From TrEMBL:
Keyword Mitochondrion appears in the UniProt entry: no
Family: Belongs to the zinc-containing alcohol dehydrogenase family.
Superkingdom, taxonomy of origin: Eukaryota
Keywords: Metal-binding, NAD, Oxidoreductase, Zinc
Name recorded for this polypeptide: Enoyl reductase (ER) domain-containing protein
Ranges where the Enoyl reductase (ER) domain occurs: 10-342
GO MF entry, a single one: alcohol dehydrogenase (NAD+) activity
Organism the protein comes from: Sphaerobolus stellatus (strain SS14)
Length: 348
């Protein structure tokens, strides 16, 4: 099959034409003919070898990237009951959690250290076929296209889980810092949950994008105007919770100051450098700091249904596999907004 591969870390992807089609090896697995694969910030970390130490010995280079997979099921394992051949599906990176570790036993298998992560430490979606775990694979409602579904499998699932972690009630204020792939989805999820939504970014293109959404934020604020300006605009003591959907370090102090006393601060971005947090936010302002990782399988199904029921928009731009380098260039442009995806087949 045709696909992209990391042949050597810190080197450009290779486009290969003779990759063996993967086979189902466990009775819970599903073979997907890939339609659209997402390109995520994590892709760069994978390409740089930042997860190399987590790779189990049987998984070696070359590695197929992309951890947001969508497509049509072509074969299922003997114990799969929720999915059949011909189904249109999407699947997040996680597969085959061990079921026996303390996290798995508590129903927290997204934290399982024995799980495979497609596109991160196991082969991913940037090729014609990928094997997924049926327990984590979602059948797509017909109104969700593959192109819209791919960004939901990491970006969407992560910000959705972040909102759940913030644990707010309708009418409360959430600030989402970063109006990128995660942010533009988070704003719409939050509006559909009845929250008052503040979106902050320092770039014009994503702010323009979110202002044009059906579920636009109540406030789309230019971060370069400073946090005092933002606090005045939203006209309260600050946000009840702030979700950091960016890895820009200076944004973290801004986000902490935008969060009200006793509020919640949810870290979603993964900056390479440590996040600076002044003790005053913890001690005198009593802010609770939490992190949020992907969603569990149930959360992913719930989010997909919300997107279908409410007509949430997923803004994407697609590129064929051959144009991966153009995609990467565009990803780093100041004008970049929404989510960039790879179109692997013509299936809709
Ligand atoms: Zn486990
Ligand atoms: Zn991702």
């Amino acid at each position: 099959m045709r696909g992209l591969q990391i042949v050597e870390f810190k080197k450009p992807y290779a486009l290969s034409h003779d990759i063996p089609v993967p086979q189902i090896t466990r009775d819970n697995e599903v073979l997907i003919k890939v339609a659209v694969a997402g390109y995520c910030h994590t892709e760069m970390m994978v390409q740089n070898g930042e997860f190399e130490k987590m790779m189990p010995p049987q998984n070696t280079l070359p590695l197929i990237p992309s951890h947001e997979c969508t497509g049509v099921v072509v074969a299922v394992g003997s114990k799969v009951t929720n999915i059949k051949a011909g189904d249109r599906v999407a699947t997040p990176p996680l597969k085959n959690p061990c079921g026996t570790c303390s996290d798995c036993k508590k129903g927290l298998s997204k934290f399982c250290q024995n799980a495979d992560h497609a596109g991160v430490i196991a082969n991913g979606a940037a090729a014609e076929y990928m094997v997924s775990d049926s327990n984590w694979t979602v059948v797509l409602p017909k109104q969700i296209s593959f192109e819209a579904a791919a960004p939901l499998m990491c970006a969407g699932a992560t910000i959705y889980s972040g909102l759940k972690t913030a644990d707010l009630k309708p009418g409360q204020t959430v600030a989402i810092i970063g109006a990128g792939a995660l942010g533009h989805l988070g704003i719409q999820f939050a509006k559909c949950m009845g929250l008052r939504v503040v979106c902050v970014d320092s770039r014009q293109a994503p702010l323009d994008l979110v202002r044009g959404l059906k579920y636009a934020p109540d406030f789309a604020i230019d971060a370069t105007k400073g946090v005092e300006y933002a606090l005045k605009e939203i006209g309260s003591e600050g946000a009840d919770a702030t979700l950091m959907a960016t890895d820009a370090i200076p944004a973290y102090e801004y986000g902490l100051q935008l969060t009200r006393k006793h509020g919640t601060f949810v870290v979603i971005g993964q900056p390479f450098e440590p996040i600076p947090i002044h003790y005053t936010h913890l001690i005198f302002r009593n802010i609770t700091i939490k992190g949020s990782l992907l969603s569990d399988a149930e959360g992913i199904r719930e989010m997909v249904q919300l997107v279908a029921d409410k007509g949430i928009e997923v803004r994407t731009r697609s590129y064929p596999l051959e144009e991966i380098e153009t995609l990467i260039k565009d990803y780093h442009k100041e004008t970049h907004c929404g989510k960039l995806v790879l179109r692997v087949s013509d299936d809709e």
